[in-house]
Write a structure and sequence with these properties.
Shape: extended
Helix content: 25-40%
CATH architecture of the largest domain: Distorted Sandwich
CATH topology of the largest domain: Beta-galactosidase, Chain A, domain 5
Radius of gyration: 23 Å
Distance between the termini: 63 Å
């Protein structure tokens, strides 16, 4: 038997589990997944150290398990869903028979419950093809001034810098025509005043519009100019 796990992460998690039977006999399988949630914030994950310990409750019902946590009046939660699974307080399980030279497959989704909402936002799978972020990055690379230097090391550094700035660009949801610079990947793909200002300032010679869009967005969201 071979077990494959393919995980997609977006506004939630989608995990596809496949059990392949390469023998000539049917295989009776019990598949069990233990589930837990620590509700750690970004800095706790980054430091690999849990500081806040949440009062947790679990509610299995039908084909789902809801895990909720409370800490100093703050509520968080996730809901795990899997078709045809048997849920308990600890997780979920399947009992299945995988045919000879056949396979068995299932999907498990984990969706956040934002602001103690009772219904999670549905997981949106990435459509096949190039992502919008990659299309935006490629378009930006094409429009910036091209540099030609004889020193290979400097040329490589400039190209890497252009690629990095392109990858850090994010859109303002309220103004899709604005592009701002995130603080850094992977931990801080968000608008940070200091980092975003410094990055867009240093990129003025390449693309002044980044600085303008960043200033306008910060003025609306974090202060007055």
């Amino acid at each position: 038997l071979i077990v494959e796990r393919n995980r997609e992460v977006g506004a939630g998690i989608l995990e596809e589990i496949t059990v392949r039977n390469h023998s000539r006999e049917p295989a009776v399988c019990v598949v069990e997944l233990a589930m837990d949630a620590d509700f750690a914030d970004l800095f706790e994950v980054k430091d690999a150290r849990i500081i806040r310990h949440w009062d947790q409750s679990r509610h299995p019902e039908g084909d789902s398990l809801t895990i909720q946590g409370v800490w100093r009046g703050i509520h968080k939660g996730v809901i795990l869903q899997a078709p045809d699974a048997t849920f308990s307080h600890e997780g979920l399980g399947y009992r299945t028979v995988v045919p000879p030279h056949g396979q068995w497959r299932t999907r498990v989704t984990v969706s956040p419950l934002v602001d103690a909402a009772e219904t999670p936002a549905p997981f949106q799978r990435q459509a096949s093809g190039t992502s919008p972020a990659e299309i935006r990055r490629q378009e930006w690379i094409r429009k910036i001034p091209a540099t030609h230097v004889s020193n290979v090391s400097i040329a490589r550094t400039l190209q890497r810098s252009h690629d990095d700035i392109g990858a850090l660009q994010i859109e303002d949801p309220l103004h899709p025509d604005r592009t701002v610079v995130a603080a850094g990947a992977p931990w801080f793909m968000a608008l940070f005043g200091r980092d975003s200002l410094l990055s867009s300032y240093m990129a003025l010679t390449v693309d002044p519009s980044l600085a303008l869009d960043t200033l306008q967005t910060l003025a609306e969201r974090q202060g007055n100019v």
